[in-house]
Amino acid sequence: MIGIGISSYVEICALGPSQAMPAGGWESATVRIEPTGKVTVMTGASPHGQGQETSFAQIAADELGVDLNDVTVIHGDTSIVQYGIGTFGSRATAVGGTAVYVAIQKLKEKAAKIAAHMMQCEASQVTCEAGRYSRPAASAAAAGISDPVVPVGEAPAGALPEPQTNGRASLTIQEIALAAHIAKEIPPDTEPGLSATYFFEPKNFTFPFGTHICVVEIDKDTGETKIIKYVAVDDCGKVINPLLVDGQIHGGIVQSIGQALYEEVVYDDQGQLITGELMDYALPKASQMPWFETDRTETPSPVNPLGVKGVGEAGTIGATPAIVNAVVDALSPYGVTHVDMPIRPENVWKIIKG
Q: 68, 55, 69, 12: which is closest to 248 by C-alpha?
């Protein structure tokens, strides 16, 4: 017997506006460029498997024009990281990632101010591309500035090298960071160092959506349900890392398969838990999984500058009803309009045998 189940959903994610939360809905981030040019991101959101160590590093690398391997993301260490709210409700990237993004914009503004001072021009004239800050070519030529310059003398052993700024028409973000820490050529009334902190307060939730379609085959002799085709199309806004999104979707679908078909907490008549270990509690196995056909649309969210929405629960929300609907559809010739989860083979067999 074949059954087809469809589930379309709209989810509320990126739990954030503080007015709607019990203890604040903002998130924090600090981004610092070290004298060495390496970047440190400290986030109040603490991922536990969603992969923000990668996606936050990507945000920093893309915005600052540095190598991804030069970015370190620190989270979960309360002795180092500023206070944060945390990860839940698919909010870590939409709220925490946005905090990282805005902190970087503040850092870039300071970098442009320092670069303008070093290149003897107005900050409004400075442009930045791929991590290099430049002054207008015409202005540089008028000032008799060319690039590159004659190197300065070698620094003493073990000391940081002096920034090479005299006569420069452009500077890398690493050179600016070094100059910011040495603090010999920064504008008056400017704090040394190159770091920025931001606490992002979202103005609304985000609303990802999608449709999941499941096709099941039921064995009339055993009542066993087998998923033979699974298709999912989700929209979680702007995608930063496609592999992380696919991983979240795949994991959510697998979790739903377990909920719909296998997993159950069972107590005996005396209240003793009899599914308290994995020898008795049925989890789905890799051999029981179908090939997931996934795709996505991208509708950027208007409530944060990254346009991201959240994807952590998308698989579980779309998949569970799609699977159950497919089983109900397969059993519809027997007058079935509802089945309880988990849909165990013995229950399906009893329905078929009448």
A: 55
pTM: 0.85
Q: Judge residue 65's burial from the number of C-beta atoms within 10 Å of its C-beta, 0-12 exposed, 13-18 middle, 19 or more buried.
A: middle
Neighbour-count burial for 87-126, b at 16+ CB within 10 Å, e otherwise = bebbbbbbbbbbbbbbbbeebbebbbbbbbbbbebebeeb
Q: Give the model confidence (pLDDT) of 215-258 as tens digits.
A: 999 999 999 999 999 999 999 999 999 999 999 999 999 999 99
14 backbone φψ class: left, alpha, beta (φ>0; ψ -120 to 50): left
Which burial class, exposed, middle or buried, applies to 62 when counting CB atoms under 10 A from its CB (0-12, 13-18, 19+)?
middle
Q: In what order do the strands lie in the sheet with 225-235?
A: 2-10, 209-218, 225-235, 292-296
CB atoms within 10 A of CB 178: 23
Question: How distant is the alpha carbon of residue 211 from its chain centre?
Answer: 21
CA angle, residues 24, 251, 259, in degrees to nearest 5: 90
The bridge status of strand 127-129 relative to strand 71-75 is unpaired
The structural domains of the chain, ordered by start, are 2-11+208-353 (3.30.365.10), 18-200 (3.30.365.10)
Is-contact 205 15, C-beta < 8 A?
Answer: yes
Q: How far is residue 252's CA from residue 229's CA, in Å, rounded to a whole number?
A: 16
Q: What is the DSSP string of 8-60?
A: EEE--BS---GGGSSS---EEEEEEE-TTS-EEEEES---SSS-HHHHHHHHH
Give exposure, 249-270, as e/b (b: 16+ Cβ within 10 Å): beebbbbbbbbbbbbeeeeeee
